Amino acid sequence: MSVTIKRLAIIGVGLIGGSLARALREAGAVKSVVGIGRSRNNLEEALSLGICDEITQDMAEGVRGADVVFISVPVCAIPGVVAEIASALAPGCIVTDGGSVKTGIVGECEALMPSGCFFVGGHPIAGTEHTGAAASFATLYQGRRCILTPTERTEAAVLEMVAHMWRLAGADVCFMEPGHHDRIFAEISHLPHMAAYALVHAVGTADVEGENVLSYTAGGFRDFTRIASSDPAMWRDIALMNRNALLQSIDGFSASMAELRRRIEAGDGAGLSTFFTIAKQFRDGIV
Ligand code: NAP
After folding, report:
1. Residues 98, 184 share a domain
2. What is the C-alpha to C-alpha distance for residues 258 and 118, in angstroms, rounded to an integer?
3. Suppose 158 and one of 118, 181, 210, 233 were both cysteines; which one would form an S-S bond, judging by CB atoms 3.0 to 4.6 Å apart?
């Protein structure tokens, strides 16, 4: 496989950025990788794990000469990162990201691009609840979707280059308008994380005659709440950045809970069976 990226700069060498670097290295698709981040410890770990060839805490220095820059820091930090690196980008550089929210990022980052450089929004639909370079692995994106969110400003050749990069990393690429992306992911990703956090919060603070109720948890509770172990800073940013879509999703969920509560309070066994049967059919229909 021929080298397609000469110098790849990864800003935020955590699970998402580290896994992309590893996958592209394994595919023989990148010549050199520079890892850029805040903490020296994580960068040194990335270097010792062979994820990067070079590391730096200086963002502008790190992106110099890169043909592709991938940003994988918490979503609220992404526009600030782009503002910091914009003047150091080489002509023709493609900047792309892996943030879980797209509308705000794409709008701000496109506007920050110097002439002759390009921004394409992206979101790989893959992840775990673990963070940092050590949590990354080369097969994270194998057979997983990666959504790219072009706008009317996106050049076809630039979009194809980013799509090609993700395909080399093993992903199935699809395209979506940023706002549409944010509504869908508010429902199927952001709302479930909020529900998991809220559930564990409620149960963890429940007062049942002084008992630590969490000590009685079994498989069901653990399965359902695994994602409440996700990084709080990352999810704070996602909740704030996808505020409008997420509020709509939370309202829908609250209405569903209120309906469930009403049927329980009324002793409406038939109503509960119908409610659970409909939900089971939806769940069983997920392939
Ligand atoms: P991660 O493992 O914690 O990696 C984030 C990296 O960003 C770390 O290397 C961290 O390094 C750096 N960082 C944190 N805050 C920063 C800031 N304010 N400015 C600059 N660098 C900062 O997290 P991740 O799971 O890879 O997530 C990264 C991005 O991918 C997020 O935008 C997230 O929405 C998106 N995403 C995550 C998943 C998932 O399931 N995890 C899935 C799809 C997309 P230092 O602390 O050393 O700076």
Report:
1. no
2. 46
3. 118
String of DSSP letters for 155-200? -HHHHHHHHHHHHHTTPEEEE--HHHHHHHHIIIIIHHHHHHHHHH
The tens digit of pLDDT for each residue in 209-250 reads: 999 999 999 899 999 999 999 999 999 999 999 999 999 999
Structural domain containing residue 105 = 5-176
CA–CA distances in Å: residue 199 to residues 146, 177, 191, 202, 231: 29, 32, 12, 5, 16
Distance CA 169, CA 143 (A): 9
Q: From the CA atom positions of the chain, what is the Rg in Å? A: 21
Would you say the pTM of this structure is higher than 0.70?
Answer: yes
CA 98: distance to chain centroid? 6
What is the separation of C-alpha 109 from the centre of its chain, rounded to a whole number of angstroms?
17
* Pair (160, 19) in one structural domain: yes
d(CA 139, CA 135): 12
Query: Tell me: the pLDDT tens digits for 28-44?
Result: 999 999 999 999 999 99
CATH number (domain holding residue 39): 3.40.50.720
Quick one: which atom of ligand 1 is closest to the CA of 124? 43
99 Cβ below 6 A of ligand 1: yes
In the reported structure, the alpha carbon of residue 72 is separated from the centroid of ligand 1 by a whole-number distance in angstroms of: 5
One domain, residues 142 and 212: no
Query: Measured from the CB, is residue 42 less than 6 Å from ligand 1?
Result: yes
- Residue 217 CA to ligand 1 centre (angstroms): 30
Specify whether 36 is located in the same domain as 146.
yes
Structure tokens at 150: 């072009």
| Nearest residue (CA) to ligand 1, atom 14 | 73
Q: To test ligand 1's pocket by mutation, which of 34, 234, 238, 242 has the most ligand atoms within 8 angstroms of CB?
A: 234
Same-domain status, 107 and 143? yes
